Amino acid sequence: MRKRSRKRVSRPASEALVFSFLSAADAVEARLEAALDPTGLSLAKLAVLQFLAEAKEALPLSDLAARQHCVRSNITQLVDRLEKDGLVRRRAAADDRRSVLAELTPAGQQAHAKGMRALADAQRAIVKALKAGEATSLQNALSALTS
After folding, report:
1. What is the model's pTM?
2. Over 80: is that where the pLDDT of 14 sits?
3. Which of 32, 48, 53, 118 has the most CB atoms in a 10 Å sphere around its CB?
């Protein structure tokens, strides 16, 4: 009886695979940033506008920092830039004058909508570049990494 040989499927070296993953993440981020560039927004700015749009009310900067997973000084700088662009305004909280709130302006609502459309178009283009079944396989692999 002849023994069937099993071919071993070699996996890429773990180091190369992880660096490929990081490189792909950088490339995707760069494509998304490039798609937002004509709107005058960045992913970070759009995220703040998204948090404010979802909240439908002014939010304390400390809440924005927590939602953005960054320190308050970073949010302060980001809100400074958004305020300079006329997309967000600051105001004191009615119940605590030491607390600063950020709220969307009408221009901020328009910028948010425009940015979300540009982001959605870029996301569709990225996924469209994958062959049939690759998107599902990639989603499954990414889910396995985050579980």
Report:
1. 0.82
2. no
3. 48
Whether domain 42-130 has CATH 1.10.10.10: the reply is yes
Decide if pLDDT at 110 tops 50. yes
pLDDT (average), residues 121-139: 92
pLDDT value for 72: 86
Helix (H) or strand (E) holding 126: helix 106-128
For residue 106 the two structure tokens come to 């009408």
State in Å, rounded, how far the first CA of the chain is from the last one.
44
DSSP symbols for 23-92:
HHHHHHHHHHHHHHGGGT--HHHHHHHHHHHHHTS-EEHHHHHHHHTS-HHHHHHHHHHHHHTTSEEEEE
Q: Do residues 92 and 78 lie in contact, with contact meaning Cβ atoms separated by under 8 Å?
A: no
**Angstrom distance (rounded) from CA 125 to CA 27:** 13
Residue 44 tokens, joined: 């970070």
HSE-CB of 20 using CA atoms within 13 angstroms: 6
Q: Where are the domains of the chain?
A: 42-130
